[in-house]
Amino acid sequence: MNLSIEQQNAVEHVRGPALILAVPGAGKTTVLIHRTANLILNHRISPEKILSITFSKASARDMKSRFSQLFGDISSIPIEFSTIHSFCFSLIREYAYTNRIKYTLVEGEKERLNKFNLIKKIYLDINQQYITEEKLEALLNATGYIKNMMITAEEFLKNNKIDIENFKTIYNTYEKYKRDNNLIDFDDMLTLSLEILRENKHILEKYRNKYDFLQVDEGQDTSKIQMEIIKLISSPKNNLFIVADDDQSIYGFRGAYPKGLLNFNNIYPKGKVFFMEDNYRSSKNIVSVCNEFIRRNKLRYNKNIRTSNKFIEPISVIKVNSISEQYKYIIDDLKDRELSKCCILYRNNLSSVGLIEFFERYQIPFYIRDVKVKFFSHWLIQDVINFIIFSNDTSNMAVYESIYYKKKGYISKKQINYAKTLNYNLSVFDRIMDFPGLSNFYRSTLMDLKLDFKKLSKLSPPEAIRFIEYDLEYEKYLKENSMRFGYTYDSLKTILHYLKLIANNTGSLNDLLNRLKYLDSLCRNSSYTKNAVTLSTVHSAKGLEFDRVYMIDLVDGDFPSSSSVDASEKGKYELIEEERRLFYVGMSRAKHHLSLITPNRIGDKSVSPSRFLLELQNNKN
User: Fold this and answer.
1) How far is Cα 385 from Cα 389, in angstroms, rounded to an integer?
2) Kind and range of the H or E element at 18?
3) Structure confidence at residue 621 as a pLDDT band (50, 70, 90)
4) Fewer beta carbons within 10 Å, N or C terminal of the chain?
């Protein structure tokens, strides 16, 4: 393989610390693989003395396979390409064996004892209520962030808002329970490894002697604690080779720490920095726009992206009236294309729901990278379905109990408990009518509710959803409680909008339920679909490339998020700069064609185009 001068210079670096800053499509992994071969072939370094670390199993497998294809027979000794977690886990196992400690990993969802069940139980014990899926995810993200940033729960709470009651107590209880019972999760692999290396000189020296050369791929995704572990093992030789792009650091919420790269010269004053600024992937149109766009960020190395590729076609900025128009535009544009070379990117997983509905209807095969689309199991969807189920059988107390406080017409828990003692074949409303001391006004309200539910039972699914939302005042409940659930009201309205989109083509509750189940099953099994369009969040698409890329739902307040915009207006730019990097990662997946699409409305709400699109308007080629 012919390497460019920039690539060759990086490959030929042997001893001492080096940071290779590479733009998208510059061949980062290619350089790391060739440098590994250079150490073995030209410098007689034994493969067992080289440890190459990356941050996902897929990347580790890819590096191993590419090395094998290019240099398969250069050594009988296997070369170690490992994730940081896998490396740490082997270190912990060795320590545990020597010290006769039995650690149990609590990551598998199928295991009875896992971190999800553990946190759910702790949350229930402390807050006396069940945790929602959203809060569970927020809690796990916060826990991971604390560990990866090497901070305390107090420090986290000082600088971050988290809508979880008694967060600190839950966090400390979870940590203590794991410690007392020798349980570890993925984040503990890192904290425990660092603890072992700092406290056990024998193990530290063993690993320092074992590996003379450390190589780090995707260095921009390294968290603070991961970099501490790597620095500790590579010291004092410091034969540390980091390949990274600070402009593609998009995992701040997990504790990725791009500032670590910006401090490289302070940590290693004699370290070398190599720039790889040639993009071999994208057309000149895409490269020049990406370059101007990312240069607006201030917290970065000053590098330029360039390419020898030709101008092919300008980037398209498409404005449509509605989300449905957006899908129709894409469906028309995909006609007669090679679908496996096309990708649709979005900021939030929720955006995939409408795509899935339309693509199935127009028989366009798709492959979705994030199979767990939480829309289908969301509590809001279940609420709406429960309203409709109850309208068809108003004696169903179990269902009514889950919705009675989410609609108009106040009914107390006392009245519900009283109604439970009466004839369960009667309508719930008739039973509550028997409650002692009810006023005539209250009886009239109950009669109106009974009639409302009778009316609801006769409506088609799209009409029923609107009736629940406005006539039964479910919308009011969402507005008043959205923040308590860790949502904005707008995001809950968007979930309702997608449910209406699916309901529009169904004639009965049964049709709607079957449609939801069918679409959910399509998502879960989409990996088996041949010649399919890829649907992905921008986060999940990092490292991939496609001939044609469509970025959708580019709406201000979503991409960038309203919290990033608010922070930037107060002079805190880290969040909006990470969102700009994310937008940049999305654009730079495209080789030849890039469409950036923004709707004017989502449901019945007017929205504004992403401010990132406005920045691009001046740079478009």
Assistant:
1) 6
2) strand 18-22
3) very low
4) N
Residues 6+ positions from 207 with CB-CB distance below 8 Å: 91, 197, 233
Q: How many CB atoms lie within 10 A of CB 134?
A: 15
d(CA 569, CA 586): 24
- Alpha carbon 557 to its chain centroid, in Å, reads 17
In sequence order, which residues have a C-beta less than 8 Å from that of residue 147 and are 6 or more positions away?
187, 188, 190, 191, 225, 255
Do the beta carbons of residue 284 and residue 339 sit within 8 Å? no
pLDDT digits (tens, 9 = 90+) for 112-140: 788 998 999 999 999 988 888 778 888 99
Distances (CA, A) of 432 to 425, 426, 427, 454, 617: 13, 10, 9, 17, 61
- Position 11 pLDDT exceeds 50: yes
Residues 276-296 have pLDDT tens digits of 999 999 999 999 999 999 999
Beta strands in 35-133 (DSSP E): 50-54, 80-83, 104-105
Q: Are 51 and 211 in contact (CB under 8 A)?
A: yes
pLDDT (mean) for 322-351: 93
Residue 241: HSE in the Cβ half-sphere, 13 Å Cα cutoff:
25
481 SS3 class: helix
Tally Cβ neighbours within 10 Å of residue 494. 24
pLDDT digits 0-9 by tens, 492-505: 889 999 999 999 98
What is the arrangement of strands in the sheet containing 272-276, beginning at the earlier edge strand? Answer: 80-83, 50-54, 213-216, 240-244, 18-22, 272-276
Give the number of residues written for the chain: 621
pLDDT (mean) for 63-86: 85
User: SS3 for 52?
Assistant: strand
Question: Alpha helices, DSSP H only, in 393-508?
Answer: 397-403, 413-420, 428-433, 440-457, 461-466, 474-481, 489-503
Instruction: Give 498-501's long-range contacts (Cβ < 8 A, gap of 24+).
Output: 498/350, 498/353, 498/354, 498/357, 498/375, 499/380, 499/381, 499/384, 499/465, 500/462, 500/465, 500/466, 500/603, 501/323, 501/324, 501/353, 501/354, 501/357
- Reported as a single tens digit per residue, the pLDDT across 200-221 is 999 999 999 999 999 999 999 8
Across 43-164, the runs of DSSP E, i.e. the strands, are 50-54, 80-83, 104-105
18 vs 205: CA distance, rounded Å? 23
How large is the angle between the packed helices 57-71 and 28-43, nearest 10 degrees?
50
Identify the residue whose tokens are 């490292």. 543
